[in-house]
Protein: 5-methyltetrahydropteroyltriglutamate--homocysteine methyltransferase
Amino acid sequence: MTQITPTSRATVYGYPRQGAQRQLKKETESYWAGRGDADALLGTARELRLQNLAELRDAGIDEIPSNCFSFYDHVLDTAWMLGAIPERHLAAVPDTTSPAGELDRYFAMARGTADAPPLEMTKWFDTNYHYLVPELGPDTWFTLNASKPLDEFAEALEQGVRTRPVLVGPITFLLLAKDPIGTDGFGPLDLLDQVVPLYVDLLRLLHEAGAEWVQIDEPALVTDQPADVLAKVADTYTTLAVAQARPKILVASYFDRLGDALPVLASAPVEGLALDFTNAAAANLDGLAAVGGIREKRLVAGVVNGRNIWAADLTAALSTLSALVELSGSVDVAASCSLLHVPLDVTLETDLDPEIAGWLSFARQKLDEIVTLRRGLTEGRAAISNVVHLNESRLASRAASPIVRVPAVRDRVAAVTDADLHRTSPYGKRCEAQQDRLRLPELPTTTIGSFPQTQELRKARAALRAGKLDHDAYQEAMRAEIRAVIAEQEQIGLDALVHGEPERNDMVQYFGEQLTGFLATQHGWVQSYGTRYVRPPLIVGDVSRPEPMTVEWATYAQSLTERPVKGMLTGPVTMLAWSFVRDDQPEGATARQVALALRDEVSDLEQAGISVIQVDEPALRETLPLRTADRAAYLDWAVASFQLSTAGVRDDTQIHTHMCYAEFGDVLQAIIGMDADVISLEAARSAMSIVADLARAGYPNEAGPGVWDIHSPRVPSVEEIAGHLRTAIGVFPSDRLWVNPDCGLKTRGYPEVRATLANLVEATGQLRARP
Ligand code: GLN
Ligand code: ZN
Structure:
């Protein structure tokens, strides 16, 4: 029986920013290109904020957030608000007296200028949203610029809406900052004493402007934090709370459980807490019970998943809410995190089967779910029974759908044995068979897969989509590109070649379009960073491969050369990480299905005579759970699904994998467990330190540490590359080393690709000739 709590409110923490017609992206990009002026951009931004305000209000959201709009990124906005602007960006745009000046300096931090590189970018927790990493050092001097939160609050108040401003919290902001190099003994949290007084000032200003509540986001508290950091959390929120004139404080957490931070926040003198009750529901419920509830505080319950695209189970959410009513002073209903992470509106998807559309819920639909649940709490379940019945029947249709559960796929997954996860022979034996077949020289050279995506390739794809180029002409254009890429590589003198991936729009989308169980959207744009939006595929049902996906391209490329051409696939973990994944079975189960589909592709490539097959897993580390305790279970299924996709080949077929990120520490054992014959890794920016790490961890197979940082057009010299190789050979057996760039070359231009690969081949030659 649902308890009735008349005071419950419906709320969210943020909403998609760019508008239904992608207006913000278009206006921003035309501002950058010099086609539109600052006033036009500011005007569009204001219009979009007012539209969102109206949309949320009309949907029945009782407490609407503000300051969740951004021209680029909310962490950058926070750095801006605190005056944490690097010297080089101040110098790049010295005059900010006009609106254009302000925008230009802000965008200089985000995108860089000719002489001032931008802030680094990295993933926002375990999402696919990227934030700009604040650069803080012992000399950082903060000054408060509260205009954005104040203006956005005032703008909404003029419309008669008293919003709840949303701020990135001081602890999270500092923990997300970069640890500056060469400042031993300094950590960004050392700046807390300087930052907290600015938040006190900001709270006073918001109070004077009329704010009753403020939301302070501390998602960093869902990651493991040592006791000294938790002590700082307690101090910080005590200081903020004792400040005299201020709005009530809601401390928000999302993406995972609060864990040890829960008792700290529960006893802090703030007025409200927001917790994630989707994936972290059980742990957060237990945590609240363990502290005896928070009866003096407002609880904002994130019961509607803000990160996936599935219709909520309203009955289950209601029962979570009822349990929470027992544990807190008041319960409000919210999405688990900002709705920024989901597409805007399912009703825009006109091609979608209406039955499937009923299973889905994008940002706009989630508002309705939240408001319905709030009504369930304030008016009783009977008041929403119609909606709940419809919801139940849609969930039932999904559960019973032949798209969702395909017996043949399930039988096949059930029949997987441990033997399917392991190659027939150990690496030592495979290595001999591969050497006999491939006859590669010492320190074989290769690239990671993609070659530059030229303007012509993009045009050909656009023309195909627009119906201006027929299928055959498109195929021929791709074949011509493959011929050119193979010829380039032969001329440069590389050993293991690639076909260049010209036919792929994106390494996940390309396969998603060909696999049963995946679904593409027309308008499902989600912000990746700045004005870059992606349309992740949805995994709605059991996955299978109706027919070969890459064999034709691979065999064509191989027919052009005597040297081995690598077959190129995207691994199961990355396929999941860059899609919206089904929520009705463990991710590991979905990964196994994808793995079996890939296993068939791997086997077809082998049958077709492809001797080297690379299965990329660049996302393996980014989906690592936020809490350390959850990582082993994740890595278990991640490694097993990679093995399942690759272990079915003969000894003399060489399996490669590829990963690219700065930090491998957490996944070294997983890399060993994957048992690829060769792994290529990003290494140039960290001066090959990964090679020593691999050696220390006892990694037994072959490795290709990247010798070229492909993130910039800079051409490394022969000496520089040879230096990297000498470093690697110094710590790792040279007969197990490969030579390759850090990652694919699709974002690079031909001039630097030709120059660098020539240097790479020459440097390798020098090392082969060493005494
Ligand atoms: N094979 C892909 C490429 O070369 C790998 C991309 C990646 O690691 N993100 O583009
Ligand atoms: Zn890569």
